[in-house]
Amino acid sequence: MLLILISWCYILFTTLNLGFAFDKIAKLKANNFIILVFLGLFSATLLASIWAFFGRINYEFQLLLLLSNGFVSFKYKSEILNLYKTFLGQIAALSKTLKFFLVIVATLILAQSTAVPYFIDNETYYIQTIKWLNEYGFVKGLANLHIFLGQTSGWHIAQSAFNYSFLYPNFNDLNGFCLLFINLFAVLKLNAFKTEKHQKALFIGVLPLANILFFQFISAPSPDLAVYILALFLFYYFLKYFYNITAEVYNLIVVLVLFIIYCKITAFPIALLPIILLFLNFKKLKIKISGLLSLIVLLLFVSKNIILTGYPLFPSLYLKNYIPLDYSLPTEIHHFWFNPAKLYDVTVSSVEFHQLNNFHIFTKWLFYSNLDSLFNSLTISLSLIIPIFLWLYKYKLSYWVLYFAMIVQLLLLFLSSPQYRFILHFVLLFGLLLFSHFIKNEKTILFFLYASLIPIAFTLFCPIQSSTSIAFANQPLELENIIFPCKNSNVSSAHIHSKVGNLSYYTPNKKTYIWVTGNGDLPCVNTKQLEYLKKKLGYIPQQRTTNVKEGFYSMPILKK
Predict the structure, then answer these.
(1) In the predicted model, is pLDDT for residue 468 greater than 50?
(2) How confident is the model at residue 217 (pLDDT cuts 50, 70, 90)?
(3) Distance between CA atoms of 42 and 19, rounded to whole angstroms?
(4) How far apart (Å, rounded) are the C-alpha atoms in residues 115 and 128?
(5) Residue 248 CB partners (closer than 8 Å, separation 6+)
(6) 284, 243 Cβ separation under 8 angstroms
(7) Rounded to 5, what percent of the chain is helix, strand, coil?
(8) Going by DSSP bridges, is the β-strand pair 552-556/495-500 parallel, antiparallel, or unpaired?
(9) Pick from 347, 349, 396, 348: which is nearest to 372 by CA?
(10) Cα(26)–Cα(435) distance, rounded to whole angstroms?
């Protein structure tokens, strides 16, 4: 816990400096301490993305951040110190009850960040994605080794910039850092509600009620949590300034949207919000800054995809044929992973997908498993209840726009992969809105906030595993974890050196789940996966040269 806390202090120092500089350059006038921290994360992500085209995100990149810190701190010392003083003064002004709540939440977040991850995607590609970035940067055709690596998220790029792998191997805790700061933001807004009495302040103020859900994502660098946190910031600013939008706030909203989409492309319906704002306020909004930022992020997204997969808009096939590359992912492999039946396989088998009608598929999705069914049912219920609620209580256009974006996201969900986590940011928005509409009494809210800490503390020692989880070893926190965090992987298998063709790689033992790689040395891929895809699709990954940095391609073989 102590080592993570120290790393967070340095991350705070760096992101605030970068956020302050970014705010000056983009002229956003975002005076909020916490928003500046997230602007710093965004700017660090862009810098790291550019860096990764030319080299690894390692100590060399940290030297760049260190120089940037020194320059900004020296040039704007008094202004930055005032930001710290104001922020600490806001926390000092909180009631003892809210201060105590923050102390408990911060301790629980630190403890959960220290714990071993219980998230299947962490073992299949999160760890390996970040490791490739730390040791090589972007590698040509990396998706040929493991297609999940082609999905390299902006959030994993951000994590690679702040895990200090050259100093210590067990830092992957950016999610905990961000969850702590949105909790701080929420508590400050809840405190402000006492005097302001604004619905928006209360809606974001009761956000800690969702911590029980957020905590399941903390110990792994999941982009999903980043989307939820950034989206809730976005919703707050969208609702607060919808009717008095300024160019500065609009550009801030665009930055949040760009960050969300760069972290998770499946969240792109959220781009409807700045588009609608621009349509309604075209004459008074200046879009040079937001347009330039959008172009930069688009170029980074496309360039990253071309390097990793050969597909400019991966996972989409659009424009693929315009950029023929020797390391492009074969369409057969792409279709295996992204055909409709495969995308629905968390709910129904491939055979069932082709045999059942849409209604029966929907029914199986709705009642798939205990946890999934709960959130699936909640999503459908909210989509039906919210328009009635908004109409009955005469909510303004801004809320209807958010509801419209939710429906678009829901349609995308059914057209792609129907996993509730892809729409959870909207579920959280309207769930918190309903709660804050009917419960406004301060003592009642505090009761619920403190009561929510009980299941959080329980799940810290008994984590909730989703239906997609594999069997993990139970590794409770120990005394040494007060200082040292647990390792980043829950896979206990030793990694074995192996070879196929000219590909020299490391693999977990054959008892490990087929798609799992864990924290093996690079290149790392599961032999069971190689054998399965070789037999099913007729391809094996190969190195383009003897230098791993030069990347990989898929070599066709004759099926026996």
Answers:
(1) no
(2) confident
(3) 8
(4) 19
(5) 27, 28, 29, 30
(6) no
(7) 65, 5, 30
(8) unpaired
(9) 347
(10) 36
Structure-token pair, residue 129: 């994605």
- For tokens 């992969």, what's the residue? 417
DSSP 303-364: HHHHHHTS-TTTTS-TTGGGS--TTPPPHHHHHHHHSHHHHTTTTS-HHHHHHS-HHHHHHH
Residue 342 or 430, more confident:
430
Query: Can you give the pLDDT at residue 399?
Result: 95
HEC secondary structure over 475-496: CCCCHHHHCCCCCCCCCCCCEE
**Are 34 and 54 within 8 A, CB to CB?**
no
- What H or E segment, with its residue span, contains residue 409? helix 397-415
Whether residue 256 contacts residue 277, with contact meaning beta carbons closer than 8 Å, is answered with no
Residues whose CB is less than 8 angstroms from the CB of residue 313 and which lie 6 or more positions away in sequence, other chains included? 302, 305, 319
In the chain, count H helices and then E strands. 25, 4
Which of these ranges, 57-71, 257-271, 341-355, 374-388, has the smallest mean pLDDT? 341-355
pLDDT beyond 60 at 559: no
Counting every residue written for the chain, the total comes to 560
Predicted pLDDT of residue 471: 45
Q: How far apart are CA 476 and CA 213, in angstroms?
A: 19
Distances in Å between the alpha carbon of 50 and those of 24, 26, 62, 296? 21, 18, 14, 10
CA distance 259 to 220: 19
In terms of DSSP H, where are the helices of 115-173? 120-121, 127-135, 154-161
Do the beta carbons of residue 53 and residue 137 sit within 8 Å?
Answer: yes
Confidence of residue 377 (pLDDT cuts 50, 70, 90): confident
Q: What is the pLDDT of residue 118?
A: 79
Residue type, 479: L
Q: Alpha-carbon torsion 420, 37, 200, 409, what sign?
A: negative
Residue showing tokens 């408990």: 104
Query: Longest C-alpha distance within the chain, in Å?
Result: 75
Strands (DSSP E) contained in 501-560 are 503-508, 539-543, 552-556
Task: Tell me which of 404 and 493 has the higher pLDDT.
Answer: 404
- Angle between helix axes 247-263 and 288-308 (nearest 10 degrees) is 10
Kindly report the backbone phi and psi dihedral angles of residue 504, in degrees, each rounded to the nearest multiple of 5, phi listed first.
-100, 120
Angle at 355 between CA 353 and CA 356, to 5 degrees: 70
Cα pseudo-dihedral 506, 510, 514, 520, rounded to 10: -30
Burial tier of 437 (Cβ tally within 10 Å: 0-12, 13-18, 19+): middle
Distance of CA 473 to the CA centre of its chain: 25
pLDDT 10s digits, 284-336: 888 889 999 999 999 999 999 999 999 999 988 888 888 889 999 999 999 88
Euclidean distance between CA atoms 205 and 225, whole angstroms? 18
The contacts of residue 156 (CB under 8 Å, 6+ apart) are: 126, 129, 130, 133, 221, 223
